[in-house]
Design goal:
The complex is a heterodimer of chains A (216) and B (490).
Chain A: E1 11-15, H1 19-31, E2 35-39, H2 42-48, E3 55-60, H3 68-77, E4 84-88, H4 93-101, E5 106-109, H5 114-146, H6 150-160, H7 165-172, H8 176-189, H9 195-215
Parallel strand pairs in A: 1-2, 1-3, 3-4, 4-5
Chain B: H1 5-25, H2 35-68, H3 79-147, E1 151-156, E2 161-164, H4 166-172, H5 190-206, E3 210-217, E4 223-234, E5 240-249, H6 251-306, H7 312-341, E6 348-350, H8 352-370, E7 373-378, E8 385-387, H9 389-408, E9 415-423, E10 427-434, H10 453-465, E11 470-474, E12 480-487
Parallel strand pairs in B: 7-9
Antiparallel strand pairs in B: 1-2, 1-5, 3-4, 4-5, 6-8, 9-10, 10-12, 11-12
Helix pairs in contact in B: 1-2, 2-3, 6-7, 6-9, 8-9, 9-10
Classes of the chains: A alpha/beta (216), B alpha+beta (490).
């Protein structure tokens, strides 16, 4: 119960205005060794949450002041990507359809089965983990790319576009030996095992640049 | 006093005339005959005024001197005649004065008589005019009272109705003598007469404006509501002279008010009826919360016990939570029971078909929302039932909504048929026939996620409290038929 938590360990955030529901879910999650934090309102949750916390959100549809669905939209607008599991005491089909379309992991009708909840949470945490891994790797590729000199970046761009050393040398008016040296340093700095690996990284970078320019 | 030619002419004329006549009579009379000259002076003073009188005195004196005083035909006078002449002049002057002053007095009298007459004529013309005006204004007033589409009457100071205008007579279809006096109240509705008489007598006593709403019988024998108003007319010394009354037809307003009242009663019934579905949903929600907590705690408890080694401390505290939450759930149930016991059911005579028809109206929106057609097949010869109309309508609404919800989930024909029929000479049977391919009726069972099954069981207990029966049978072609019976008034 009082065992120390690793800050990388995911947390299940439970938001329901009924304290007994929060308590029940928290108890169940702790009994299977999951870490849970409960909140009576969405504001309380936002005040205690930051982007570095891995985890997922178990959200009641009817909350004081704001519906869970409105909160889901609000999170999406602020670019917060935490996976959400909805629960309701009176859900109807259009509502389910709407929240699932907006990216909810699961829609639970109270009272729910243990497996439904745990399966949903497992799925949500896995989604969050995968998203974080992808994000981490993108970030490290970016960091590595930024460590390249401008000449090395040029060489990397041309090489990954499928040109031979000879063609690159001609293009940049350098000797083929110099290109080979640059290319070796690029492979080292980008920690690429092969040319194919480097091409994949270049693709990813391309996508990130595109995504960030789209965002702007 | 007059001056000029006219007095001289008058004096000359009279004196000349007197002279001629005197000369004529002179033959028979030896002594100077002067009476006619007195007459001339009198006439001159009378007709010509003071000046003419004095002139004629002078002229006649000269004439007498010349013609009759010796020596005749000369202006000379002897001593003996002098005193005679002087006496004549004095007498003539006195006569002239008396005559002219008499004349002036008479003229004044005549003048004032003329003035008086003139004034009298003016006055009578005025009186004539004002009389005409009165006649005209009376005519216009009468015209007005007949022209405006208003029923008007007039009453004496003691409140006795003396006059009714043509509109009022036309409306009641009575002659004036059958509307005035004590006869007036006979056109009022029997229930309104006493109130009207009392209020009218009161207004007359206190001399205050009168207002009352009464039903008045028309010529066609139908009563309409009127607002009867009357105001007193006061004389200058503050006494009531008469009363004027008007009738304003407020039948439409009365009908509208009546309809409004009915609508409000209906509305309150409907909102009570509609609230049942909402109530079922909210009861379901209230129950779901503690049940969810119980279920999750129970799972956790099992997990704590299954751990190796079992976490007995957590398992025990979790079991405690389960007890707490179960107690909360049973409190909700107790609350619901209290809610339904709160209202005393009534028993009144009701037309089931009317309930069904108003139900269909009520269902229109719900039916459109679910794309369901609601049809009715009602037996028009149903006797009245003894029931609580609100409760029965709640039952029908609940069954109909359940039925429509079930239909809405299917692809088949979307039609809900509500039938009423007379059964076994003592019951009315209501059938709700839903064309669906689902489910049969079990108490506390529902196909819906938000537990209106409770509504069904409440419905059954309502019907049983009415000594009726509620049951469901599956249809051969699919769907379910809900039926219930209600005893008729014996």
């Amino acid at each position: 119960m009082s065992r120390p938590y690793d800050s990388r360990e995911p947390i299940v955030f439970v938001v329901d205005d009924d304290a007994s529901i929060c308590e029940g879910i928290c108890n169940l999650l702790e009994s299977v060794g999951l870490r849970a934090k409960t909140f009576g309102s969405t504001q309380e949750f936002l005040d205690n949450w930051n982007e570095d916390m891995p985890g997922c959100l178990v959200l009641d549809v009817r909350l004081p002041g704001i519906t869970g669905i409105e909160f889901q939209e609000e999170l999406a607008r602020s670019g917060i990507n935490i996976p959400i599991i909805f629960m309701t005491a009176h859900g109807d089909i259009p509502m389910v359809r709407k929240v699932m379309k907006a990216g909810a992991i699961e829609f639970l009708t109270k009272p729910f089965q243990r497996e439904e909840l745990l399966h949903g949470i497992g799925q949500a945490l896995e989604t969050d983990r995968a998203r974080r891994v992808a994000w981490e790797s993108e970030r490290s590729i970016q960091t590595r790319f930024q460590s390249l000199t401008s000449r090395e970046r040029e060489v990397m761009n041309l090489v990954t576009s499928g040109m031979l050393n000879k063609q690159v040398a001609a293009d940049l008016c350098l000797s083929e030996i110099t290109i080979k040296q640059h290319r070796r340093r690029v492979m080292e700095k980008m920690q690429a095992d092969s040319l194919a690996d480097l091409v994949r990284m270049a693709d990813k970078l391309q996508r990130l640049i595109q995504a960030s320019s789209n965002k702007r | 006093m007059e001056y000029g030619v006219r007095p001289s002419a008058i004096a000359g004329f009279f004196v000349y005339a007197a002279l001629l006549w005197t000369l004529l009579f002179q033959q028979g009379i030896s002594y100077p005959f002067v009476f006619l000259f007195f007459g001339a002076v009198m006439g001159s003073a009378w007709f010509g005024g003071t000046l003419a009188g004095l002139l004629s005195v002078a002229l006649s004196t000269l004439a007498i001197t010349y013609f009759f005083v010796p020596p005749v035909f000369s202006m000379s006078v002897n001593r003996a005649s002098k005193s005679y002449l002087v006496a004549y002049a004095i007498c003539a002057t006195a006569i002239s004065w008396v005559s002219s002053s008499r004349k002036r007095a008479e003229t004044r009298i005549l003048n004032s008589r003329d003035q008086l007459e003139e004034r009298v004529q003016e006055r009578s013309a005025e009186i004539q005019r004002s009389h005409e005006e009165i006649v005209e204004s009376e005519r216009q007033l009468r015209l007005l009272t007949e022209a405006i589409p208003q029923q008007i009457w007039r009453a004496a100071a003691d409140g006795t109705i003396e006059y009714c205008n043509q509109h009022l007579l036309n409306y009641t279809g009575r002659t004036a003598d059958r509307m005035t006096g004590d006869q007036f109240v006979s056109v009022l509705h029997g229930d309104d007469r006493e109130g009207f008489s009392e209020a009218w007598a009161n207004a007359v006593n206190l001399a205050v404006e009168f207002e009352d709403e009464c039903r008045i019988c028309g010529a066609d024998g139908h009563y309409r509501w009127f607002l009867i108003r009357s105001i007193p007319q006061f004389s200058t010394n503050g006494q009531i002279v008469r009363w004027y009354g008007t009738h304003i037809d407020i039948e439409n307003r009365h009908r509208a008010e009546h309809a409004l009242n009915l609508a409000q009663v209906e509305l309150s019934q409907q909102s009570r009826t509609l609230s049942m579905g909402e109530m079922a949903a909210s009861i379901a929600h209230e129950l779901n919360q503690p049940i969810t907590a119980v279920v999750t705690h129970a799972y956790a408890c099992r997990q704590w016990l299954a751990a190796d080694p079992p976490n007995l401390e957590r398992a025990s505290s979790t079991a405690e939570k389960i007890v707490q939450e179960s107690t909360r759930a049973s409190a909700v149930v107790a609350g619901v029971r209290g809610l339904f016991q709160g209202r005393e059911p009534t028993r009144e005579s009701a037309d089931i078909n009317r309930l069904v028809r108003s139900l269909v109206q009520l269902l229109r929106d719900e039916a459109i929302q679910r794309d369901v057609i609601v049809r009715t097949r009602l037996d028009t010869n149903l006797p009245q039932t003894l029931c609580d109309p609100v409760q029965i309508q709640q039952v029908m609404l609940n069954l109909a909504i359940n039925g429509m919800d079930a239909i809405a989930k299917t692809d088949g024909p979307r039609e809900l048929l509500i039938e009423s029929a007379f059964r076994d000479s003592h019951e009315i049977l209501i059938r709700m026939d839903e064309e669906t391919t689902t489910k049969l009726f079990v108490p506390f069972f529902t196909t819906k996620p938000h537990g209106a099954g409770l509504g069904l069981s409440i419905s059954r207990s309502i019907i049983e409290a009415h000594d009726g029966k509620l049951w469901a049978t599956p249809r051969m072609a699919g769907g379910t038929v809900f039926q219930f019976t209600i005893p008729v008034v014996s």
